[in-house]
Write a sequence for this structure.
């Protein structure tokens, strides 16, 4: 067992507590190590042999390496998303605003109220309304890549499709004018870098600037929808009411739109990139999928499991919580390592093997419990459309040059993915 922030003492529940500061052992793995960022899965496997839950003194939190413990972290109501404003408050005014009012940072009953209102707006059939449009867009993006590649020239599938499709879909869903859509991904990219460890002052300043610009833009767009309603999700978020007449506040509305873009498109972009790279590195599975396109829905789930787009999700203990043989004390943080959980051999047969036909696949890449991803149905539509287009509109896909990974651990993705596409 790795020591935590104090000397261990056994309690009646059999868990181990750490009441006071002591000399700390090295962390179970260094999440800033370039080798771990490039391929964390061997390090996860090694850590799982030591203990399911281990203390990381550098990060000041517990890490869960097994599926059972990570799943418990996501589902245990005593482990909550407890937002604390980044300090100093005046420096992070907009960044704090879009998290303080976010459904992802709330617990019941506030979370229940907000999710009910958002779900009511989604229930207007927005995802199914967009399905044909999403497929047409995916087809056209792949056709353009094929034309530019001409069977011999590598083209970047990440910028040419994986990044374009989900941003366009979220923008279409919300009713963002086409001329403004290029603004969205740079704002999102800057904001999500705040979730990484070892941030620089420049990264933090860029994130706050992007948050401020994003908030101001969405306030204007929401005001426009109040004056001129449409059939888009933003209009329905502006007008939604529950049975008691409750509605979203202005800050909740703005935050919800930002969360839909940031969480929704970042995950889809990175599943697209990570997943296609995995298929290109496993040509037998790519060929299997071409032969049997009916496996596509199953394959999407496997690609999410095999190389998770989100690797770490934090919770905070609201009381002492025994988990995985240790006690997480009130106020301490514990993180579910989703990528490690999704490779746990206790749950997944041959977990390091990519199997596009894997039927028994309880991955937790979309989360679990009350914070299960509200945009999961939309993400699945996008991913099935993009991978379906790549398979149906090409005869061959080959890696044109080594893919480059982004240097962040928490949000796992590629910088580019050069591919040769043959019609």
């Amino acid at each position: 067992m790795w020591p935590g922030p104090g000397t261990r003492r056994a309690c009646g529940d059999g868990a181990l507590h750490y009441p006071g500061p002591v000399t700390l052992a090295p962390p179970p793995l260094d999440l800033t190590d370039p080798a771990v960022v490039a391929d964390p899965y061997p390090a996860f496997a090694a850590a799982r042999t030591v203990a399911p839950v281990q203390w990381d003194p550098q990060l000041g939190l517990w890490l869960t390496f097994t599926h059972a413990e990570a799943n418990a972290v996501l589902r245990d109501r005593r482990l909550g998303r407890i937002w604390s404003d980044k300090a100093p408050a005046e420096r992070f005014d907009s960044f704090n605003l879009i998290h303080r009012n976010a459904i992802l940072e709330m617990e019941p009953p506030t979370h229940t109220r907000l999710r009910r209102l958002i779900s009511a707006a989604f229930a207007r059939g927005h995802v199914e309304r967009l399905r044909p449009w999403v497929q047409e867009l995916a087809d056209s993006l792949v056709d353009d890549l094929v034309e530019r590649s001409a069977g011999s020239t590598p083209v970047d599938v990440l910028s040419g499709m994986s990044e374009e499709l989900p941003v366009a879909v979220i923008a279409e869903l919300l009713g963002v004018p086409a001329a403004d859509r290029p603004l969205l991904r740079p704002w999102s990219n800057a904001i999500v870098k705040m979730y990484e460890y070892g941030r620089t002052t420049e990264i933090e300043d860029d994130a706050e600037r992007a948050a401020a610009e994003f908030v101001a833009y969405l306030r204007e767009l929401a005001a426009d929808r109040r004056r001129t309603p449409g059939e888009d999700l933003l209009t329905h978020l502006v007008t939604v009411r529950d049975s008691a007449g409750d509605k979203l506040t202005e800050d909740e509305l703005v935050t919800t739109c930002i969360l839909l873009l940031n969480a929704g498109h970042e995950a889809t972009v990175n599943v697209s990139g990570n997943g296609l790279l995995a298929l290109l590195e496993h040509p037998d599975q790519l060929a299997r999928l071409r032969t049997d396109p009916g496996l596509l829905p199953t394959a999407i789930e496997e690609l999410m499991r095999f190389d998770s787009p989100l690797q770490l999700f934090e919770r905070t203990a609201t009381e002492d919580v025994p988990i995985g043989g240790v006690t997480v004390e009130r106020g301490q943080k514990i993180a579910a390592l989703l990528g490690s959980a999704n490779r746990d051999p206790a749950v997944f047969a041959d977990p390091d093997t990519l199997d596009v036909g894997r039927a028994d696949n309880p991955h937790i890449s979309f989360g679990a419990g009350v914070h299960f991803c509200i945009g999961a149905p939309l993400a699945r539509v996008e991913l099935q459309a993009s991978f379906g287009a790549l398979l149906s509109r090409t005869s061959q896909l080959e890696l044109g040059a080594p893919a480059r990974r982004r240097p962040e651990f928490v949000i796992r993705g590629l910088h580019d993915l050069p591919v040769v596409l043959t019609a």
In short: The two ends are 54 Å apart (CA to CA). DSSP finds 16 helices and 14 strands in the chain. The CA atoms of residues 39 and 307 lie 10 Å apart. Residues 83-309+364-422 form a domain with the Cytochrome p450 fold (CATH 1.10.630.10).
